[in-house]
Input
Amino acid sequence: MDIADIKVVEHDVIVLGAGGAGLRAAIECSMNGLSTGLVCKSLLGKAHTVMAEGGVAASLGNADSRDHWKIHFRDTMRGGKFLNNWRMAELHAKHAPERVRELEEWGAVFDRTKTGLINQRNFGGHRYPRLAHVGDRTGLEIIRTLQDHGIHQGIDVYMECTGLDLLKDEDRISGMVAMWRDSGKFIIFHCKAIILATGGGGKAWKITSNSWEYTGDGYGMAYEAGAELMDMEFTQFHPTGMVWPPSIRGALVTEAVRGEGGILINSEKNQFMYDNIPDRFSAETADTKEEAARWLSGDKDARRPPELLTRDVVARAIRKEVKAGRGSPHGGAFLDIANHRSPEYIKRKLPSMYHQFKVLAELDITKDPMEVGPTLHYFMGGVRVDADSQMTNVPGLFACGECAAGVHGANRLGGNSLSDLLVCGKLAGSGAVNYIQAISGQPKLNDDQAKKVVRSATNILNRDSGENPYLIHENLQELMQNNVGIVRTNELLLEGIKGILDLWDNFNNVKADGASQFNPGWHQAISLRNLLVTSEAVARAAIMREESRGAHSRIDFESESDEWLQYNIILKKSSSGTMSTEKRLRDKPDPELERIAKLSIEELEAEVIHDKSQD
Amino acid sequence: MALKNFKLFRGNSSENTMQDYSVKVDEGMVVLDAIHRIQADQAGDLAVRWNCKAGKCGSCSVEINGKPKLACMTRMNEYDDDETISVRPLKTFPVIKDLVTDVSWNYEQNKKIAPFKPDSSKKDENGNYIMMQEDIDRVQEFRKCIECYLCQNVCHVLRDHEHKEKFIGPRFMIRLASLEMHPLDKADRISDIKNEHGSGMCNITRCCTDVCPEDIQITDNGIIPLKERVVDRYYDPILWVFRKLFKKK
Output
């Protein structure tokens, strides 16, 4: 194909990905006068954000006036086992309330308190009821609000268009090659900055709550362009995915079920979470059912039930029960809300869960317990970015939302993802605005670079014969599930890396049948490059980090290590083309932030009361 | 493990055929699972749109044995063992390939709707908007919409009479209703609803409501109240005389 035949479109900035982070970033860019292109693999409004259920975390203090950004910050750091980027966690907690109120300004309709304010619900790891929500379809509300606001901001939307690779002029970003999914035609975006908002890479695992879109595109493209990936070993297994029927295995069961009073039991009817309370959280967690019941009925002096411990803790506890032979018939644990809330309450607060189980599992959750088990859900790690601007080490390349690393450390709290994408989406947008104002000249497109990208995509179709892309994907999912799963060992990981390298060989000879028009086999084959970069990065980081922290559990290194707390793991493409892994010393935390995070909850609550009285 | 027979629409709007496939079906599978299995084993280039696989995103709308449905929420055990399942793309929109249609017309309609305009005087002294739950229940019903466009697909005005230029369709009538009934919104869309968006074209056959996977009462709670607002504004005889006398519009 002649490169001159490919259409070139000019924009100041291209945002790749139209979930919450991408939409929020694009709105920010456009509001500030940039010519903005928003490129997305699916139709607008179908991105992963639409599936978020429980809520968006922000210390509005509507349901409990004691809340404050400092307490949200402390919860986030503790949930992340102190590996979070301190500054990012600070910005996140500070800005979240403003970002939520802004959504209301743009038409969002959250559930209300009795006095007409935005209502907030309890979630794991959050000290107070903090999640603004709409039943259990909060993500839909957020994406639709941003979408309906965004379409009037002069943003050009390129739907069902897959980003292939980034283009650079010397060191800095100059554009991106993409492909229209329907026609198979290529398009080149010529721009000064690119914001990656591509989400995570959960599709590398077999049991996942993620959709086909989650193939680590941002990780693969950033890595190829010379950007650094960070903390990729921290992949969150959400404790409650559906386990039956097999075809739906992994689909998310919102944490809101536990937030609304659902309890976990094993086949012996034991509420096993009481035997799994880590020391770090024991002072803040109920140790009797009686106290948990008081907390649920609104007693502010009672401590929260252990079902609402952080996701890493709950996922490991469920796995332990199943391993010990105390699991449910299909290999999970029982999650029971039917005995704790009325059918009317359940249907009002958890309508999509009710519907999902009724249709897909033929189970009435107002009558019977659900069967749930861990499912790969979220990447805490990702592209390394600067906290304030969200820019990567490649000038002009930004990342935000799940695609970027930093806010969540070793484990993310539920509800902190929707707030992250709003806060960091806006930061990335203003980061790009500032960058573009500061640079001189227009970065130039390089035809040879673009040609190379196009050729590697068309080769997949043009080969006479080769490997089946669906099969490579299936083998990768099997491998990651078994070798880079919820518990890891050196041996498993070594075998995993070897398997990934073999799959790279298969990928280099992948063949898709058929023509270029809307060809899922071809699309699958193209995404394998990014899935393999993602998988290799996770496995290599996981083998390097010789400790267990948050979502990263090593059987051969069972506890947290103070030594490892001082390091991030950085992955990048070396000059020889292989993946390099570096143990990099973290910056020292701001002393004030460190002080806040390490206060006891009683001390911090007293400080916050004092702060508020000064306002 | 049973074998099930499928007939799938293959091709584009000018050249197409109903192709036979036979696929192994496991317990609990939905139609989308079976289509994916055909894609992986027999037809790598079979085009189908999907995302969440849990009824939340509205991407996998197709017509299964003549009924508009989400493929991800239609269980295989709804059909008899010997029944052949035929799957076709949405009829109302142009086919791109196989089961995928071009639904971009819907996005153009959405853009025509005057955006939300908040009334900042409804903030309390702390800068918070105050809305009571009972005042937003009806708006939240409309906001459950996942934009699957099944309602647009079955609307007679769009499907059989092809009056896409005259009527915005049920999906966007309820979006208009969600704005018009929003306690904070102060924009006035009644004239647009009558003139630009074609509220008069709907003859309330409720086909849209029947196919809504979110059980939104599109006709009764959304379209009819909007029609009433139009009637109140333009066809109220007392107001008509009043306007004549005082030349108010």
